[in-house]
Design a protein that fits this description.
This protein is of the alpha/beta class. The chain is 27% helix and 23% strand. A nine-stranded mixed beta sheet has the order 10-9-8-7-11-6-12-14-13. The structure holds NADP nicotinamide-adenine-dinucleotide phosphate. NADP nicotinamide-adenine-dinucleotide phosphate binds next to strand 6, strand 7, helix 8 and helix 12.
C-alpha cells in the first residue's frame, strides 16, 4: 500500500486497484474505489464498494479517515451519486466534509446520476477535477455501462484452441485442449459471472456442468440456447443439477408444451423468445431478457454456432482465448467462431487492450472488442 503519491494519476491508479476488489460482489452496481489524500499527497484513508446494497466507496474512505477532513482531497474512481438509492446520496456526505478538491475518474452513465453529482459539487463551490485516468476508470465500469445504456450484460467469450486454431477435432472431440491450470482460471472467471451461456451443440457433444468449482463470489445462471429444449435430456448434467444451481433454456415457439412441462418439472426454467431469421432463439432477445434481470457479466462457453451468432450481431465485448501447444489438423476440425463472419479484412472488429498470460505452456490472450 503506498503512503504517498507522486501525482493525481498515481493516486487514481491506486484507487482503481482497490476498486477491483469489489468485482464479483458488487454487481449490478459498479466497482468503485475512493481515497482521502492530504494536500502533500499523503494517503489518509481508503475505501471501496464491497457488496451490492452496502455503503459506497466514498463512505468507507471517509469513515476510515475520521472526522476533521476539511482541506483534504477526495479521490473517487466514479462520480459520487446524487440520488437516494439503497444508500443516501454520497454528494451530501462529500459536501459535509469540505474537501479541498474532489478528483474523479469518470462520470456515472446511469441516467439518474449522469453528471448531476459533479454539477451539485460544483454548485456548492467544490473544486472538481474530472477525467484523471479516465479511460481506465471507464473501462472498469464497462459492464455496468453496457447494462445501463444498452440494457444487456457485458459479453465475455471464452474458448480453448489448438495452435492451428481449432476448438475440437473433426469428430467434435474437445476434452481437453487446454491444461489444468487454464481450466482452473476458467472456474475463477465463472465465479464472478451472472450467466454462463452455451448452445445445444455443446450440450450434446460435451454434456457440460458449467458450474464454478470451487464456487466464486457469484453463482451464475447456466443458460442454453436451444429452439426445442431437447438437448437437455433427463440424463444431462445440466438438467440433473438444475435444482442445485439454476438452469434456463432459451427456446422458441418450437418448444412444445409437453417439452416445457418436462423441463419445468426438472427445475429448468424455459424462456421462449423470438426466433431469428433462421428460426433459432434470437441472441439479441436473449441478451435483453438477461439485462432485464440485471445480469451484468455473461460468459459464453459454446461452440462456433453461438459464438458466430454473437459475433455477427456485434455483441461480444471481451475475449479470453486459450491457445494450447497442440495441433489437431483436419479441414473439418472446428474453428471457434462460426456464423456469417466478415467478407473483408478492413471490416474486422477492432481489438484493444490486448494482454497475454502464460499458464504453464498454454497462452491466454485477452482483449476488448472496441465499439468506437
Ligand atoms: N474448445 C472449446 O473451448 C469448446 C467450447 C465449447 C464447445 N466446444 C465444441 O464445440 C462443438 C459444438 O459446436 P456447436 O457450434 O454445435 O455448439 P454450440 O455453439 O454450443 O451450439 C450451436 C447450436 O445451438 C443451437 N442454437 C440455438 N440458438 C442459436 C443461435 N441463435 N445461433 C446459432 N445456433 C443456435 C443450434 O442448434 P439447432 O441448429 O439444432 O437449432 C446450433 O447448432 C463441440 O464439438 C464442442 O466440443 C469447444
Amino acid at each position: 500500500m503506498p503512503t504517498q503519491f507522486e501525482s493525481d494519476q498515481h493516486a487514481m491508479r491506486y484507487a482503481l486497484e482497490i476498486a477491483r476488489r469489489g468485482l464479483g460482489n458488487v454487481e449490478p452496481n459498479p466497482a468503485v474505489g475512493a481515497l482521502v489524500v492530504a494536500p502533500d499527497r499523503t494517503l489518509v484513508s481508503e475505501g471501496w464498494h464491497r457488496e451490492f446494497g452496502g455503503p459506497h466507496a466514498e463512505v468507507h474512505a471517509i469513515q476510515a479517515a475520521g472526522n476533521d477532513l476539511a482541506g483534504n482531497d477526495l479521490f473517487v474512481t466514479l462520480e459520487p451519486c446524487s440520488h437516494h438509492g439503497q444508500t443516501p446520496p454520497c454528494v451530501d456526505l462529500v459536501l459535509q466534509h469540505q474537501f479541498r478538491r474532489v478528483v474523479i475518474g469518470c462520470s456515472d452513465p446511469a441516467a439518474h446520476v449522469n453528471g448531476q453529482g459533479i454539477a451539485q459539487l460544483r454548485e456548492n463551490g467544490v473544486d472538481v477535477v474530472e477525467g484523471i485516468c479516465g479511460a481506465e476508470a471507464a473501462r472498469l465500469i464497462a459492464p455496468f455501462r453496457t447494462l445501463q445504456l444498452n440494457g444487456r450484460p457485458w459479453v465475455h467469450a471464452k474458448w480453448a484452441m489448438t495452435m492451428d486454431g481449432r476448438i475440437a477435432s473433426r469428430t467434435g472431440h474437445s476434452k481437453w485442449i487446454s491444461n489444468e491450470r487454464s481450466r482452473e482460471y476458467v472456474h475463477q472467471l465463472r465465479g464472478r459471472m451472472d450467466v454462463i451461456l452455451t448452445g445445444r451443440g455443446t450440450v450434446v457433444a460435451d454434456n457440460p456442468l458449467l458450474t464454478a468449482r470451487p464456487e466464486g463470489a457469484r453463482r451464475p445462471l447456466r443458460a442454453v440456447l436451444d429452439s426445442t429444449g431437447e438437448s437437455l435430456t433427463n440424463d444431462s448434467q445440466l438438467l440433473r443439477t438444475a435444482n442445485e444451481v439454476p438452469v434456463a433454456v432459451f427456446a422458441t415457439a418450437h418448444c412444445t408444451d409437453a417439452e416445457q412441462a418436462r423441463l419445468q418439472r426438472a427445475g429448468v426454467e424455459c424462456i421462449v423468445v423470438d426466433a431469428d431469421g433462421r428460426g433459432r432463439p434470437d441472441v439479441d432477445a436473449v441478451l435483453l431478457e438477461l439485462g432485464r434481470r440485471r445480469c451484468t457479466n455473461l460468459l459464453v462457453e459454446s461452440g462456433p454456432g453461438i459464438l458466430g451468432a454473437l459475433f455477427d450481431s456485434e455483441k461480444v465485448d471481451e475475449l479470453h482465448v486459450f491457445v494450447a501447444p497442440k495441433i489437431v489438423g483436419g479441414v473439418k476440425a472446428l474453428s471457434p467462431v462460426g456464423g456469417l463472419g466478415r467478407a473483408n479484412i478492413p471490416e474486422l472488429p477492432n481489438l484493444q487492450n490486448v494482454r497475454t498470460r502464460d499458464f504453464e505452456g498454454d497462452v491466454l490472450i485477452q482483449a476488448d472488442v472496441s465499439r468506437g
